[in-house]
Design goal:
Length: about 80
């Protein structure tokens, strides 16, 4: 199950104590456990690299929830994965 972190990203790694963490921001503060796409109804996410848009989902790669912005962000893989 995805976890929303205080930094706005969905957890994308694990801390040494095996708790969810954000490797992008070095954040270890969990705000909530995300169920399905609860709270994202009607929202769109834009790739931060190529502006590709999809429906927001807690399961998108490198998803960042931005409730005060028009779009959330994620990474679509346009520059590869390695």
């Amino acid at each position: 199950m995805p976890y929303l972190m205080k930094c706005g990203h969905v957890a994308n790694g694990w801390a040494k104590n095996r708790n969810p963490a954000c490797a992008i921001c070095d954040c270890i503060d969990v705000v909530k456990e995300c169920k399905d796409n609860e709270g994202l109804e009607g929202r769109k996410a834009k790739c931060g690299e190529c502006d590709s848009m999809v429906s927001s989902s807690w399961n998108l790669p490198f998803f960042e929830y931005k409730p005060d912005k028009e779009y959330d962000t994620y990474y679509c893989g346009c520059w590869g994965w390695d």
